[in-house]
Amino acid sequence: xxxxxxxxxxxxxxxxxxxxxxxxxxxxxxxxxxxxxxxxxxxxxxxxxxxxxxxxxxxxxxxxxxxxxxxxxxxxxxxxxxxxxxxxxxxxxxxxxxxx
Length: 100
Fold this sequence. Notes:
Blueprint lengths: L11 H7 L3 H14 L2 H9 L9 H7 L3 H12 L4 H9 L10
């Protein structure tokens, strides 16, 4: 359920980020820290993509949700290495080669 996807690969995390729902996003991350491994947190929650290669970072950025971007960054900063944070989160591209 936590990492479940709809038909186009979007998760509850993506919807929360897209709609600037900080409370829901925080609850998802808190639950994830308790229920899934650090590797799953990295690969599926922070860096996971939908069917067009968009991450949660892309979803929040597309809608100009600055507070959500800040919250995602703060969570990622404590989990991802500096190199992965830079290359996969901040500069990561979707299937069309677009960055957030």
